[in-house]
Amino acid sequence: MTHDEFKILFTGPMGAGKTTAIAQLSDDECVSTDVVNTDLEQCNKEMTTAGLDYGYISLADGFGVRLYGTPGQERFRFMWPILANNAAGVILLLNGEHPDLEKHLAIYADAFANNGETPLVVGIGRLAANDFSCVDLVTEKLANMGLFVPVISVDVREKEDVLLLVETLLCQIEAHEMELMEV
Amino acid sequence: MTNKNPLGQAATEIAQQQLQKLRAATTGITSAVLLSSDGFEVTSLETDKGKASRLAAMGSSLAAISSAIAKEAGISECRRLIVESEEGVVAVMTVPDSSPPLVLAVVANDASRLGQLLWGAKHCCAALSKKLNK
Fold it and tell me: Are A51 and B1 within 8 A, CB to CB?
């Protein structure tokens, strides 16, 4: 099956950088559903996504990628399957500084990896430059869940970093489709 | 999951009175939730707290998506969203000039009349805006 357009989904806990990542990549202005954040205890930031984020990026060879982002908080969980519908793959963003990192990983990997059926890439933000312990930890935890997926340390404020995540995911999607064809 | 109220107790009581007033004056209202725009329940007419929390989160998403499409279509600012079915109506609307921004979500059955419901809800929002800003 050939595609010239993919839908991919950014997810992860509040404050992981989903909205920022999509804004970095999108060719045009993103659709944003930011509202005032009143839960400063959970994450000290001014605004938070209540509905969805949407952007679009044109890649080489006529490829286009539709970029969707979920709200992070679990109370918005009902939005997750709506947004995940028809997604070719998922980018899970985590906040490497957050004390609940492992808990977040378990929640989102469970909700979005579809037992390894959905192509997945994990990006971890806010890590010190030479600290790979967190990447190792997350890789190991994912392996324990039966998920063998790329885990990358990223700064979502850097377009190159977000692009790396998307390109890695596109490779995963391609590999996944080839596997399906072989069956 | 945190379960916190973005308004103080006195303000919450005032808001609860306004919701009760709305229900008393309007035919067919089955539930109503006042919520912060980021999806926390402030107060509600719903006795089932789990249901009120879910309605608050959904009301927040719907209000945010409605604002986004109104902006996209060049008709901003979005005042309210109406969902109609054979069995009833859900109306989601913003409370003007509220801080933190508040949203009212009202659910009504098929005994309701849309005009009366929207009129009542609009006045409820206006009253909330006035009383909470005091």
Answer: no
pTM metric for this prediction: 0.92
Residue found under tokens 């906040």: A95
* Burial of residue A177, with CB atoms counted within 10 A of its CB: 0-12 exposed, 13-18 middle, 19 or more buried: middle
| Domain regions of chain B by residue span | 9-132
Pairwise CA distance, residues A95 & A84, whole Å: 21
Convert the pLDDT of each residue in A2-53 to its tens digit.
557 889 999 999 999 999 999 999 999 999 999 999 999 889 999 999 999 9
pLDDT tens per residue, range B34-55: 999 999 999 999 889 999 999 9
B58 vs A95, A142, B39, B63, CA distance in Å?
25, 31, 7, 8
Cβ burial of B77 (10 Å; 0-12, 13-18, 19+) is exposed
Higher pLDDT, B134 or A163: A163
Residue A43, SS3 per DSSP:
coil
CA-nearest of A23, A27, A151 to A94 is: A151
CATH number of the domain at B9-132, please? 3.30.450.30
Q: How far apart are CA B40 and CA B54, in angstroms?
A: 9
Residue A162's nearest CA partner among A4, A19, A7 is: A19
Number of domains chain A is built from: 1
A→B contacts (Cβ < 8 Å), by residue, are 31-39, 41-42, 48-52, 71, 73-76, 78-79
Cβ–Cβ gap A35/B60 under 8 Å: yes
Provide the ipTM. Answer: 0.89
